[in-house]
Amino acid sequence: MEESLDPVSAQAIEAFPFPEVIVNFGRLETDPVTGESGRVQVLKHMNDAECLLLLHGTEPFSEEYIPSKFYEYLWTQRPILGLVHNNPQLTGLLKEFNHRSVDELNIEQVTRTLGELYDLWSVDQLQDNQLASPYTTQRAVDIIVGWTNEMVRANTRTG
For labelling alongside 108, which of 24, 30, 86, 148 has CA 20 to 30 A away? Predict the structure, then answer.
């Protein structure tokens, strides 16, 4: 495997029984031929995926953590399978956008959900969810500008 992987990931991939399904793109920099940034290349690869896997973790801090990759995945509108442990907020967000969330420690649930996704894929029914992410830069700017306008109005009335 390429050196861009951390030692734990490299070891896990080495032990994985189906290495042919893993593609390590390494760190994607600007392509000198196409001029595409690494970010654009990553988004293209995510859009090419049949289903995006969101690994969350079982560490205590994960209970209150929403990975930034979740928001990038939403932009693609591709199906997402979230392996989530003890984080009701992330589970709720995944379900709100019609994605799957399973407890990564519940092997039966993981196996059942993978089977369901495979069945949909095998009959070409694993489709984009067609829901645009509300988490955009423009929306964030609009909210911040709105707050600023409210503060200016409040200061004008009291000042």
Answer: 24
Closest CA to 4 of 40, 42, 35, 51: 42
Q: The whole model's pTM is what?
A: 0.77
Distances (CA, A) of 151 to 42, 46, 68, 142, 156: 39, 40, 29, 14, 8
- Written as tens digits, the pLDDT of the chain (159 aa) is 345 788 888 888 888 888 787 888 888 899 999 999 998 998 899 999 999 999 888 888 888 999 989 998 998 999 999 999 999 999 999 999 999 999 989 999 999 999 999 999 999 999 998 888 888 889 889 999 999 999 999 888 876
